[in-house]
Amino acid sequence: MVSADLGYDAFSDGFPATVPRHEWRINAVALTKIDSYAVMYSANQFSPRIWLLAKGDNIGQLIFQPEDAPLPPDAKVGGQVNLYYHLEQFPHALDLLESDAQVSLLFNGSGGGFENGLLTVPENVTSDQISALLKHD
Q1: What's the pTM?
Q2: Per-residue pLDDT tens over the stretch 84-108
Q3: Bridge-partner residues for 117, per DSSP?
Q4: By CB neighbour count within 10 A (0-12 exposed, 13-18 middle, 19+ buried), where does 121 fall?
């Protein structure tokens, strides 16, 4: 599950103990802790992908397009998030997932104006701090 309707839009003092950390929702921004991933580097016409998993469930994928190709909008399809990147970003995404940092899938929405991606979130960071980082002036 990438984003559950948890009945609130923001936390005031960090993450409440009643909400599992894999279902953080901050100011209507959904964060899902990534537990594992799988790489599919296909032959022929299929784009390379990194599948993202949480609690054994597929929560989304990073799809890598040729450098000269326009990127489709990120989208949630069938309950899973598709995030699009150019192929040159593949090693950077893989490095982040392979790091010791806790990585979460950030999905804010589809279409222009929504920031989506991979986000490292240390345990001691509050929701207010994350929300402030995600604000664009």
Answers
A1: 0.74
A2: 999 999 999 999 999 988 899 999 8
A3: 106
A4: buried
- Taking the C-alpha atoms of residue 98 and residue 78, their distance in angstroms, rounded to an integer, is 27
Which residues, in sequence order, are bridge partners of residue 64? 85
| Residue 105 Cα distances to 22, 58, 70, angstroms | 10, 12, 22
Q: How far apart are CA 26 and CA 32, in angstroms?
A: 11
Which residues are bridge partners to 50 per DSSP?
39, 62
Here the tokens at position 57 are 């469930």
Q: Which residues touch 77 (CB under 8 Å, ≥6 apart)? A: none
On whether the CB atoms of residues 57 and 81 are closer than 8 A, the answer is no
Length of the chain: 137
